[in-house]
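Q: Convert this sequence to structure tokens.
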Amino acid sequence: MRTASTAWSRRGFVAAGGIAVAVSAFDPVRRGWVTPAHADPGLGIPVPPLDGELTVDPAALAEASEDYGHIISRVPVAVLRPGSAEDVATIIRYADDVGVKVAARGVSHSVFGQAQVDSGIVIDMRTLATVHALDASGAWVDAGVRWRKLIEAALSRGLSPRVLADYVELTVGGVLSVGGVGGASHRFGLVVDNVEALEVVTGQGDLLTCSPTDHPVLFRAVLGGLGQCAVITKAKIRLHGAPTMARVYQLIYTDANPYVADQRTLARDRRFDYLEGQIVPAPSGGGFVLVLEGAAYFSSTPPDDGALLAGLTPADGIPPTIFDLPYLAWLNRLAEFEAALRSIGRWETPHPWLDLFLPDRGVEAFMADQIARLTPDDLGAGLGLFYPFRRARPQRTSMVFPRGPGLVWLFDLLRYPPADPTLVDALLADNRARFEQARDFGGKRYPISAVEFSADDWRSHFGPDFARFARHKAFFDPSNILTPGQGIFRG
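A:
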């Protein structure tokens, strides 16, 4: 049952607490909504017709003011539940007219307010969640489709996305806005490197289709572009043939040097279909160990364990763990982790995550120092990630990586602490300190992080690419109304 609300659709009113309440306009001077009962019915800028609804329902505003991080809260003035891509275009043009900012929101797995907007309009993309077409050439899907839904639809035809983030309950549009790193990134790049085309709405409210050959500048600006130039409404995702099973290999390391050496070897020879690594508490207590996790996919003939493990040098006396899972169960493996966190009350608590990209050269010593400084309180019920991937060549996205040759390394601290404000503040300070160390080492912040960034930090982050990124912003979003939560372009 809906709570008492005020919403706008083609009908012009909804029942609010059992009473129909009509709404006609937004008053940009008083920063509030106008009803026909107002003494001056001509006041304000009229709300345009919509296929979906624009709501100020208190529950909707409260939901849109939070994200998965539960650290930053910004309350919007309204939430759009679009019924079409045209609604997104309409409301962006309307927001420009009334002088409010706009942010698109999926499941809001952001951790630091990136998809929030103070006193603006949040577009809830979850109402656009249709798989429109799917075959060997790719899948055209709405931005609000969750990856698990796309996976299931693709598997029904023997297909699968080539690269996936680990958590498949995220929306397509959300992942494409930030990049998307996963276990197949050492083979095929990031998720954004596996997109054939997009439908987007620019900051001027233009609904356009773009690709490497059609509006290529816009296509590049939007993929990994942090929502600065356009809102993604549809995407065509590259697919390939799907296996039915995954054989998983887990190897334990106590020293960063052999771990990095083996990860480099595996990333370069691509013997595994999936390759990631984790930082977890040592089973014996005290300190942490590194877990190399690889998976080989198959349908009928199992992989050769000896060939896949040949030449690797895990810690002495700890045999590898090897097990098989159905392919879909493997892709959705974090469902069990999510259930465990919910059972101990850590899913809805603050999540001050740290996410960094590191250069290849010298990463062993840098990571050895980072791991030596870790304590159980740094992670709580969480874990660290540490593994290499390949950047796409030629790069056709707005992603920013460390300079230099070779692989890029992902270093994440997926922190799940108790709901203790003092501890959360300490972890945020630690995030900033570790980021600065990584920056001085040549690393970059993966912008999903809970790390406070100034305007100067953003300029340093983009480096010589900042001028181009700013030009794209000025051209496609000249009023600077899109996604203010990233804090890149202030004002």
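Confidence is low (pLDDT under 50) at residues 1-22.
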